[in-house]
Amino acid sequence: MINGTILQGFEWDLPADGLHWRRLTARAGWLAFRGFTAVWLPPASKGGAGIHDVGYGVYDLYDLGEFHQKGTVRTKYGTASEYIACVRAMRDAGIQPLADVVLNHRMGGDEKEIFRARPCDPENRLQAPGEEEDIACYTRFTFPGRGGRYSSFVWTHDCFTGSDFNELDPDHRLFLFAGKEWAPDTDGEKGNYDYLMGCDVDVRYPPVREELLRWGRWFLERTGVEGFRLDAVKHISASFYRDWLRTLREETGRELFAVGEYWNSDLGTLTRYLDAVEGCMQLFDVPLHYHLAEASSSGGAYDMRNLLAGTLVDTRAQHAVTFVDNHDTQPGQSLESWVGGWFKAAAYGLILLRKEGYPCVFWGDLEGIPDRGIGAVPELKRLLRLRLYSAYGTERDWFDDPDIVGFTRDGDSSVPGSGLAFLCTNARGGVKRMEAGRRFAGKTFRCILGGQPAVTIGADGWGEFAVKDGGVSVYVPAPGIITSAWRVIKDIQRAVNVFRKKPDKKRRGSV
C-alpha cells in the first residue's frame, strides 16, 4: 500500500509540437517510481483552434488526432494512436490514466444556421431584456473530415441552449435559443451559470444525452482510460453527470474514478453540489487553493490558523482532491491566483504529507513553465519521496498560532521508519512543541527539509521543532541500518516492477 498521488500531466503553455503524448509515454515508469498513482492527461479531442487548442475549445469529441480537421490531423499533443499508447504505458506502469472530459460546449461549427433566439443579460442570465429575433450562428457540426466514422450524429442549433455569437449583430450579445431554457441545476452565479462559452450544449435534450452516453462508451473502449477529470461541472446540469457516470459504471462494471472542476471558493456551494450528484465524483478543493494563495501573497498578514477552515478536505475529505496550482491558476490565465514560489514547498507539504485528501501535483511545479521563466519547485521530489516512505499513521495538528502551524504523523509499523513532523510559517520563524508519539521516545528526528538542528524526542513523546522565517521544516526519524536497507530493497523492487511493466496491485487513494 502506498499513498495515492495524482499528477496533472500538462500546463497551459506547453509547446504545440505534437510531442507531449510521447513525452508522457517515455516518462511513465519514472512517474510511477516517484509515487504517482494517477496522471490527469490533457483533453485529447480536436479543438476549434487545431494544433493551438489546449483542448478546452472542443470541436469533435471523436477526433483524438486521427482526422484532418481544423487544418490538422494531430492535436496540440499528438495523434490518436500516440494518445492510446500513452494511456497503455500509464496502465502498464501501474498508473491510472485520467481523461480530461469537456462536454459543456462546442467551438468551430462547420455551417451557419439562422433561427430565433432571445438576448439575455450576461450578468443575469435569468433576465431577457429583448424580444426574440433572428440570429445567424455556426451551430451545425457535421465533421466532414471524419465522414461519419464512429458516429453519424450531426449537431444543430436544437442541440444547444445558447451562444454569444450572432453574425447579424456586431455586438455579439448572449442569446438564449428559442424553445430552450438554462438548466436549473447549475451554479447560481450570474443568475444562472449554465452558459460558459461557445455553443452551450443542451445536456437535457434527449438526443444529445444519448449521444454523449454513446461517446462515453466509445471513448472508454477506444482508449482504455480508467477515470475522468470533468471540466466546468458548475456549468452543466448536476443530474446529467450523476446519471452519465452511474450508467457508464454500471455498463462497464468499472469503478471509473472521477473528479470534477467546480470553480467556487464557497464550501457550502461545493457540498451542495456533492449532495446533488449523490457523491458520484470528487471535487478539487478550490477553497484550500485560495487559502494557500492568500497565505503566500499577504506579506505575513494571513492568519495561518485558518488554512484548513472552510475547505473541502476539512469537511468532506473523502471527496477532496487537494492541489496547489493548476493550468488555470498559472500566470497569464483567466483564474490566475498563483501560489508564490517561496511558499510552494510549504503548500505542497500541506497536501502531500497530511492524511486526508487525494493530492494533485501540477506539471508546472514538477517540470517548470519555461515560457514564463518559472522553474520547478526544488523541494517537490523530496516531498514526493516523503509521501512514499514517511507520511503514514495518526495525525496530530497544531494550527494554534497565527504565524507557525504544524502537524505530526506517528507512522505505521508496516512502513519501517515512517512518521514525521511538519511545520511552516508565512511570517516569523520559531519553535513549536509538538507530540510525535511515545513510540519515538528517545529517538532522533532529523530535519531533512528546512536546515534545522536534529530533535531528540522526550520520554513523553514530545519534541521542540524549529522553522526559519517564511520557511518550512520536515523532520523524520533518523533511519537505522535496517530501515535504510529496507528502503533500498523497496526502491529496487519498485523499479523492477515499474520497468518490467507490472502494475502495482494496491494503490491507496486512487479510488
Descriptive report:
With 511 residues, the protein is an alpha/beta fold. Among the domains are: 111-201, Elongation Factor Tu (Ef-tu), domain 3 (Beta Barrel); 395-478, Immunoglobulin-like (Sandwich), CATH 2.60.40.1180. It contains eleven helices and 24 strands. An eight-stranded parallel beta barrel has the order 1-2-5-12-13-14-15-16. Strands 6-11-9-10-7-8 form a six-stranded antiparallel beta sheet, with no helix packed on it. A six-stranded antiparallel beta sheet has the order 17-18-19-24-21-22, covered by helices on one side. A hairpin with a 5-residue loop joins strand 17 (395-398) and strand 18 (404-409). Helix 1 packs antiparallel against helix 11, helix 3 (206-223) crosses helix 4 (238-252) and helix 8 runs parallel beside helix 10.
Provide a brief overview of the structure:
By secondary structure, this protein is α/β, with parallel strands linked by helices. It contains eleven helices and 24 strands.
